[in-house]
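Shall we go through a protein fold together, starting from nothing but its sequence? Label the sequence line and the structure token line clearly, so we can match residues to local backbone shapes. Would you write everything just below, so we can both look at the same thing?
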Amino acid sequence: MILQAQDLTESLVIIGFFLIFGLVGCVIQILLTVWTHKDAKARNMSADLWAVVVLIFGLLGLIIYLIVRSPKAIKGPEQARAPQLVQKEEAPAPQPTKKFCSECGSEVKGDAQFCPLCGNKIRAA
């Protein structure tokens, strides 16, 4: 009878160790999964996919993630996007204003004082 009680105690201790190590392992696995999700999200990667990979494959999934992850974008003033310089189209050069004769309507050169067609005096614009 004493031998059986001792065996039972040893069995309970062994079961307790397995439970503790199992729970610690589960907590570590969950923490690694959460960290992977946050890190993948910060790197604009598929965070949900990588969290599932690490959750299913454990340490192997984490190692694969660490190998293939993209570089993290640094947020700071030195990495801020420089404003894009938009090249505006230059306005066309102003055309010299055309003069027209008030009498006959014909076009008159810019410096002419009289209409070349009818001889009417051109008024200043």
The longest strand covers residues 99-100. Residues 83 and 108 are 49 Å apart (CA to CA). The radius of gyration is 43 Å.
